Structures are given as structure tokens and as C-alpha cells.
Amino acid sequence: MAETSATTGTGEPASRPRKSSWKYIGPGIVVAATGVGAGDLVATLIAGSKFGYTLMWAAVIGCVVKISLAEAAGRWHLATGRTLFDGWRSLGPWTTVYFAIYVVIWGFIYGATAMSSSALPIVALFPDGPGLKFWAIVTGLIGLAFVWFNRYAVFEKVMTVLIGIMFVVVVYVAARVVPDVGASFAGLLPVLPDGSLLYTLGLIGGVGGTITMAAYGYWVNAKGWSNSSWMKVMRLDNRVAYITTGVFVVAMLIVGAELLHASQVALTSGDRGLVDLGAVLEDRFGAGTAKLFLVGFFATSFSSLIGVWHGVSLMFADFVERFRAPAAPADPADPAVSEAQAGPAVTERQQRSLPFRAYLLWLTFPPMTLLWLDEPFGLVIAYGVLGAFFMPFLALTLIWLLNSPRTPSEWRNGWVSNGMLALAGLLFVVLCVQQVRELPW
Asked: Is the Cβ–Cβ distance between 368 and 140 less than 8 Å?
């Protein structure tokens, strides 16, 4: 990336590399809090309940894969000064068509899922109060108002509080069940028990692996990190994100292995499985631990809700803005690209824009109809197919972008990055095929 003569508020050159420091951490906390949803934790619990500690190694590999994937997204934003959708658009119109269909259908169904997931622990905590639909609507409206009226700085602080609650609760529950340290370390040896392949792939690719990985670069820009001088900071921030995610995965695997595996307790699949776990914890450790766990369950679900409300709305606003504008040329030496690199790609203006707020409304109000209706068959199929293709789409397009002249040579992929992204792409293609096969055709 070309040097710039711009200066910071302190008068220092804006292009001077920043030292990686804990004081800058922020977008990584946001992506970790958003990416780990209730359904992800249930999937991890079920893997632990079926196979004990045997798949611990898969959780570790999953963290490494997703560190590489999110780092690539952040590196694209900082090295080029262009957004990820701007990069996708340079690959051809097919990316615009895919993303446009995906973001509309995905948002419609995800909105209902996120609101229901946030309402479940509230209903469990207050069984004599209003029902699931009431609390789902309330959480959706609170999420809408919060994201609508607050800027990124406030959003990041609230997400930090929520992930702090998640961290304390999940680690506390894992400690209460008393992990088998020896078995945990033995689980780091790659082994595939009979019938474990899909659970292994799910552990590697599922937890924390959603569209929010693509949103990471947008949060990096919203933080004010706008050029390659922030690269070291971004890499530290990203590692913190997925190490935190790894702690959640390992902790829930321990709970599944210790609390459920020996007693062969079966959980309901999906978010309701955490309500089942709350009942198991109450029987084992008392009502206090069960209620604390439900508070952590709410923090997990609601952080995902407001994270998507904010991050994917930013992506949609950028999508609309780039769709209206001429496509930027691929050559980084082109003057048009240099102009695009002059400032942060995601601005205060975008967060207040009509497309940002329109997508917020789309995530909130139309999905409320699904709270009263069974999800339409065709919509479920379309959602499943488009969703399954997103992670392979992200991994493979990042390989394409970061090995091309679109990226300054200093920041293009090395063999390690290419290897990790190729591994991620292969993994997600296999998961994609399996997810499509399991749809209720």
C-alpha cells in the first residue's frame, strides 16, 4: 500500500505501524461474541456427550482455521482500503447476485431464529411470565433500538460486557463439572471414532464460523483502523477473538463430556438444548447454578442478535453503496484505487444511512411473522442452500483476492495463508455438501 502523508490527531504519520497492544482490542471481541451462538454451543455439547474428550483436537484446529480466515478478511480491508464486498464485486457480477439473494433470505429467517433464541432463556428464568413470542418480539425491538441509536464505540462496550458474562458462566460451569485434565490432553491427539466424522467437521467449521467472519473487516474499519499501519494490531485482535472462541468450545466440550457423556443424557438439538442443560445443571448443582447458566445463555444469544443486527447491516449498506457506484479497477496502481484507499471504508455516514437502517428493519419486523408460522418449506430449502455455500464462498474468494494484483504485493498471501485458506475452503465445501444433503428435500 502506498505511503500517505496524512497525520493522526497527535500529529504522527497515519502510515506509521502501530505496535500491537491490548488497549486496542475491540473488533475481535465483537466477532467472538457474535459468532458463538446458542446453537453452536449445543452442537459442541452434543459432540462432547457422544465422544467425550476425543474430539478436543478438532476444536483447536477449528480455532486455527478461523483465525486464518478472519485475518485474511481484515488484511484485505487494511491493505487495500477497500471493503470485502468491493473486492467480491471486482471478481464479477455473479458475486453480487449471490450476495443479494443470500442476504435477503438469510436475514429473514435468521431474524426469527435470533429473537427466539434470545427469548428462550428468559422464558426459562420466568416461567410464570409472558410466553416465547412476547419475549422474542421484545428482544428484537430492543436490539433494533440499540443498534439504531448507538454508534460502534457504545456497541463494542456492550458486546464486551456480554462476552464477559458468557466467559465467566461457561468457564464456571466447566469448572463445576471437574474436567479430566489427562483425558483433555489425550483428546489433542487426532482420532476419529466411528460415526464422528460429521461432528468433527462441525467442530472445526461450525462454531464461530458465520457471515460475521466477513463482517470482521467492517468492524475493523468502524473502529477507525483504515490502513496497513494497523496490521499488527488487527492480527493480535483477531487472535484474541478466536482464542476466546476456543475457550468457549473447549469448556462446552468438557461439560458435554463430564456431565452428559457418562450419564448418556440426550439434549434437544438446536437452541432448546441449552434449556435442557439448564435442567440437568439444576438437578446436579442446584437452582443457583442453573439460573446463572441461563443468564449466560441469554448473553450468548443476545450478543449474536445485536452483532448481526450491526455487522450484517453494515455489509448491506456497503453492498448498496458499491452496487450504485462504478466498479473499482483491480490494479492497485490505478488512481481510482488510490482514491478509494484515502480513508476508512466504513464510516459514520454508512452507519446512519438509509440502507443500514432498512436492513435493520428487515431483520426485525418481517421475521416476526415466522414466530406464528412454520417456516415455509421452500424458504427453508433456499436458506439452507445459500447458507451452506457462504463459508466456501468466503474462503475461496479470499484466496482469489489475496493472490491477485488487487492486493499490494507486500500483503498478498504467503504459503501458510494459502494453505490455511485452502484447508478452510475444502472443509467448508465438504460441510456444504453434507448440509445440502441433510435438507428436507
From this structure: yes
Is a pLDDT exceeding 90 seen at residue 60?
no
**How crowded is the C-beta side of 132, counted as CA atoms within 13 Å?**
17
What backbone torsions phi and psi does residue 403 show, to the nearest 5 degrees? Answer: -115, 15
Under the banding of pLDDT at 50, 70 and 90, the label for residue 383 is: low
User: What is the torsional sign of CA 160, 164, 167, 173?
Assistant: negative
3-state DSSP call for residue 256?
helix
DSSP secondary structure code for residue 7 in this structure = B
In contact, 86 and 104? CB cutoff 8 Å = no
Cα–Cα distance measured from residue 212 to residue 84, given in angstroms and rounded to the nearest whole number: 12
Q: What's the pLDDT score for residue 11?
A: 38
Q: What is the CA radius of gyration of the chain?
A: 21
C-alpha closest to that of 49 among 191, 262, 359, 290: 262
Helix-strand-coil split of the chain, %, nearest 5? 75, 0, 25
Packing angle, helices 354-364 and 132-149, rounded to 10: 170
Task: Give CA–CA dist 24/225, Å, rounded.
Answer: 10
The whole-number pLDDT of residue 195 equals 79
Burial string for 61-98 (b: 16+ CB within 10 Å, else e) reads bbbebbbbbbbbbbbbbbbbbbbbbbbbbbeeeebbee
Distance of alpha carbon 441 from alpha carbon 435, whole angstroms: 12
Class of residue 12 by CB neighbours under 10 A (exposed 0-12, middle 13-18, buried 19+): exposed
| Average confidence score pLDDT of the chain | 83
Burial of 211 (0-12, 13-18, 19+ CB in 10 A): buried
Question: Would you say the pTM of this structure is higher than 0.85?
Answer: yes
Distance CA 303, CA 156 (A): 11
In angstroms, the CA 203 to CA 248 distance is 12
For helices 197-205 and 56-80, the axis angle rounded to 10 degrees is 30
Query: What sign for the dihedral angle of Cα 187, 189, 194, 197?
Result: positive
Q: How far apart are CA 398 and CA 421, in angstroms?
A: 8
